[in-house]
């Protein structure tokens, strides 16, 4: 409405001299008129010039007198037209503040006789203050002296009024054009008929809603911090594709082991085999599988090179540990603590607790003379840093560790013992062919990253945590959970 009024007025007239006046003449809200002026100015339909004016507003006290009359007139009217009354009697007739202010004013104005008795001195009085206040309220201009007087009595205060004078601008039109703003298919097809809005390179874009950490990343960070605090170095795990040799054979896992079946492992079609392996080491691995050595009888089967060459998606990060230990064995011996947290792959039926790819956390310590007691002690230290200090161990079997132990922790929240990992001491059949000194022992453990994360975040279906069905809201709004689930 205001827009039509402004553009229409300028069609016939040179100028709107004062937006305030214009608003009251056209019965428009001045704030709305100002908004329209700003917008039309932005598109250069109009030119606008600021106008600033001092305007006056009544204070609360001023408003009261404008309605009820000034206190001096109220006092005057309380004095009888004929005769007199005592000051006390007069005071009782009026509100204390009215009496107090009015009394001093009637004195100044010489309207009443102020002796023992009070009586009128004049017949009529004019309520000048009330009239001036009413004029101010109506927006009429008062002379300087009156303004100073009312301001002195704190009945009015000044406010800077802002408005505009308005003329036609370079893009003036009696009606605003609708510009096309989006590069839609329709707009592009009709581009000849349309006028596009100009780009505003100074406009700020929408705030970017991105950059949230997935719960798995938050928990991974906490595990990483714990390993680093315990002096572990991170292993390079950036190869998802591994040969069967490093994933299985180097770990003394026999070639007919069920895990090496394609039902359990993803084998690669291309490249289906590895290009090179360290030949002398391969020979020693073959020997230990076939006929043992280092105090072992071996598995007594025909070890096949083709089987070791097959490429696969690594089924555990222990494949990386075997590469690292082999590299370590080539140097003069130095003790090491290694860890990794990265992705592994298993050809499994997916259900609420299993995925075909998940993350494995792996830690190992390699030093002379380590014992099972050291492994238990390190595990106690490691898991208590996670807030899990009640641990139990259960004998287990891995082809590459002896002894092997499953790790259970008492979960206070769930009120039961839960399996949290697997561990053991690497076998001599694994370490000796690498060339590590005979008294060097390696203690190691592994667990999934998903399981503790699910426990922490109260997620009971792994597909709600990882994969294409994950709710983005989970990623945007997950809290920071402290590991320490006790
Ligand atoms: N590699 C084992 C975990 C493990 C690591 C190190 C020693 C013992 C066990 C697994 O996949 O479950």
UniProtKB/TrEMBL annotation:
<keyword id="KW-0547">Nucleotide-binding</keyword>
<dbReference type="InterPro" id="IPR006195">
    <property type="entry name" value="aa-tRNA-synth_II"/>
</dbReference>
<feature type="domain" description="Aminoacyl-transfer RNA synthetases class-II family profile">
    <location>
        <begin position="218"/>
        <end position="479"/>
    </location>
</feature>
<dbReference type="GO" id="GO:0046872">
    <property type="term" value="F:metal ion binding"/>
</dbReference>
<dbReference type="GO" id="GO:0009328">
    <property type="term" value="C:phenylalanine-tRNA ligase complex"/>
</dbReference>
<dbReference type="InterPro" id="IPR002319">
    <property type="entry name" value="Phenylalanyl-tRNA_Synthase"/>
</dbReference>
<dbReference type="InterPro" id="IPR040724">
    <property type="entry name" value="PheRS_DBD1"/>
</dbReference>
<dbReference type="GO" id="GO:0004826">
    <property type="term" value="F:phenylalanine-tRNA ligase activity"/>
</dbReference>
<keyword id="KW-0067">ATP-binding</keyword>
<dbReference type="GO" id="GO:0000049">
    <property type="term" value="F:tRNA binding"/>
</dbReference>
<keyword id="KW-0436">Ligase</keyword>
<dbReference type="InterPro" id="IPR045864">
    <property type="entry name" value="aa-tRNA-synth_II/BPL/LPL"/>
</dbReference>
<comment type="subunit">
    <text>Tetramer of two alpha and two beta subunits.</text>
</comment>
<keyword id="KW-0648">Protein biosynthesis</keyword>
<dbReference type="Pfam" id="PF18552">
    <property type="entry name" value="PheRS_DBD1"/>
</dbReference>
<dbReference type="GO" id="GO:0006432">
    <property type="term" value="P:phenylalanyl-tRNA aminoacylation"/>
</dbReference>
<dbReference type="InterPro" id="IPR040725">
    <property type="entry name" value="PheRS_DBD3"/>
</dbReference>
<dbReference type="GO" id="GO:0005829">
    <property type="term" value="C:cytosol"/>
</dbReference>
<dbReference type="InterPro" id="IPR004529">
    <property type="entry name" value="Phe-tRNA-synth_IIc_asu"/>
</dbReference>
<dbReference type="GO" id="GO:0005524">
    <property type="term" value="F:ATP binding"/>
</dbReference>
<protein>
    <recommendedName>
        <fullName>phenylalanine--tRNA ligase</fullName>
        <ecNumber>6.1.1.20</ecNumber>
    </recommendedName>
</protein>
<keyword id="KW-0479">Metal-binding</keyword>
<keyword id="KW-0963">Cytoplasm</keyword>
<dbReference type="Pfam" id="PF01409">
    <property type="entry name" value="tRNA-synt_2d"/>
</dbReference>
<keyword id="KW-0460">Magnesium</keyword>
<keyword id="KW-0030">Aminoacyl-tRNA synthetase</keyword>
<dbReference type="Pfam" id="PF18553">
    <property type="entry name" value="PheRS_DBD3"/>
</dbReference>
<comment type="similarity">
    <text>Belongs to the class-II aminoacyl-tRNA synthetase family. Phe-tRNA synthetase alpha subunit type 2 subfamily.</text>
</comment>
């Amino acid at each position: 409405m205001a827009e039509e009024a402004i553009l229409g007025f300028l069609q016939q007239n040179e100028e709107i001299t004062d937006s305030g006046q214009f608003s009251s003449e056209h019965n428009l809200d001045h704030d709305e008129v100002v908004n329209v002026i700003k917008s039309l100015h932005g598109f250069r339909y109009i030119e606008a010039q600021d106008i600033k004016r001092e305007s006056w507003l009544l204070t609360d006290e001023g408003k009261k007198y404008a309605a009820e009359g000034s206190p001096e007139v109220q006092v005057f009217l309380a004095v009888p037209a004929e005769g007199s009354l005592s000051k006390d009697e007069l005071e009782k007739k009026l509100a204390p503040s009215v009496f107090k202010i009015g009394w001093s004013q009637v004195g100044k104005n010489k309207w009443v006789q102020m002796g023992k008795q009070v009586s009128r001195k004049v017949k009529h009085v004019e309520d000048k203050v009330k009239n001036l206040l009413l004029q101010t309220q109506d927006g009429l201009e008062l002379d300087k002296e009156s303004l100073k007087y009312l301001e002195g009595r704190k009945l009015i205060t000044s406010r800077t009024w802002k408005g505009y004078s308005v003329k036609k601008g370079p893009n003036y039109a009696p009606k605003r054009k609708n510009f096309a703003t989006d590069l839609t298919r329709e707009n592009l097809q009709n581009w000849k008929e349309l006028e596009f809005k100009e780009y505003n390179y100074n406009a700020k874009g929408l705030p970017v809603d991105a950059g949230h950490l997935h719960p798995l990343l938050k928990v991974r960070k906490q595990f990483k911090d714990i390993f680093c605090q315990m002096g572990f170095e991170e292993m390079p795990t950036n190869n998802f594709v591994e040969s069967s040799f490093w994933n299985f054979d180097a770990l003394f896992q026999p070639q007919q082991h069920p895990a090496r079946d394609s039902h359990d492992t993803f084998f690669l079609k291309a490249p289906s085999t590895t290009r090179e392996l360290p030949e002398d080491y391969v020979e020693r691995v073959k020997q230990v599988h076939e006929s043992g050595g280092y105090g072992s009888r071996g598995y007594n089967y025909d070890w096949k090179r083709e089987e070791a060459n097959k490429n696969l998606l690594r089924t555990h990060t222990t494949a990386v540990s075997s590469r690292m230990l082999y590299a370590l064995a080539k140097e003069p011996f130095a003790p090491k603590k290694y860890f990794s947290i990265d992705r592994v792959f298993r050809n499994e039926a997916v259900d609420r607790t299993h995925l075909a790819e998940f993350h494995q956390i792996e830690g190992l310590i390699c030093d002379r003379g380590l014992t099972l007691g050291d492994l238990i002690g390190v595990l106690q230290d490691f898991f208590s840093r996670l807030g899990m200090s009640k641990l139990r161990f259960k004998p287990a079997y891995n082809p590459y560790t002896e002894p092997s132990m499953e790790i259970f922790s008492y979960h206070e929240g769930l009120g039961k013992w839960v399996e949290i990992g697997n561990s053991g001491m690497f076998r001599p059949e694994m370490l000796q062919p690498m060339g590590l000194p005979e008294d060097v022992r390696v203690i190691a453990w592994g667990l999934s990253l998903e399981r503790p994360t699910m426990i922490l975040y109260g997620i009971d279906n792994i597909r709600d945590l990882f994969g294409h069905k994950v709710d983005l809201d989970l990623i945007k709004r997950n809290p920071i959970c402290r590991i320490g689930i006790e």
